[in-house]
Design a protein that fits this description.
About 35% of the residues lie in helices and about 30% in strands. It has three helices and five strands. Strand 3 and strand 4 form a beta hairpin.
């Protein structure tokens, strides 16, 4: 084998060894996670970015179907609020904005057909910082919009992890009573 071919083969062999090791330890990419309900109603407009993202993620989770009628669904995902914030973090010496902090907070709850709370009202929040420049106002406004989209995607992921983790309560089985042993007498 020529020295240049050997030099090219080393990274390939290292990658192959790493892939074999990762496969051997049981590692696999996280795929769709099944939800504990067959049908769901999403209380967000199907035309909003949030509503579309939630519907898509729930549909991709496996066997859960989106219902457009809240009464026909096993559960209702109610979006209580979805707020965006923008705060000044720092100013230049001349009083112009140098940095902003963007925030987004999503409040939701999950209820069943009888309006019984399965997941109580829960808030999820994300924050991002970015530098601002008056000379690049168009680019910075596009950056801000991209950051908001990224934050919304992050919130949808957090919400989906909460939905995946939720499991219906199992009725507890009564425990058989253990006969109590009389105290042993010591002579």
């Amino acid at each position: 084998m020529t020295p240049s071919l050997a030099r090219l083969a080393r990274p390939f062999l290292a990658a192959l060894a790493l892939a074999t090791l990762a496969a051997g330890c049981g590692f696999h990419l996280r795929g769709p996670q099944p939800l504990a309900f067959a049908t769901a109603y999403v209380g967000a407009s199907q035309y909003s970015e949030l509503g579309m993202a939630l519907r898509r993620q729930i549909a991709l989770s496996g066997a859960t179907k989106i219902e457009e009628d809240a009464k026909a669904a096993d559960v209702q995902l109610q979006i209580l609020s979805n707020k965006r914030t923008r705060e000044i973090l720092s100013l230049t010496a001349t009083g112009k904005v140098r940095e902003y902090e963007l925030g987004q907070t999503l409040r939701f709850r999950l209820v069943d057909r009888d309006n019984k709370e399965l997941i109580p009202p829960t808030s999820l929040s994300v924050r991002r910082e970015y530098t601002f420049s008056d000379e690049m106002i168009l680019g910075k406004s596009q950056e801000e919009e991209l950051l908001y989209r990224d934050m919304e995607s992050d919130l949808v992921g957090q919400l989906m992890r909460r939905l995946v983790a939720w499991r219906p309560e199992q009725p507890s089985e009564p425990q058989p009573e253990q006969p109590s042993e009389p105290p042993s007498e010591q002579p």
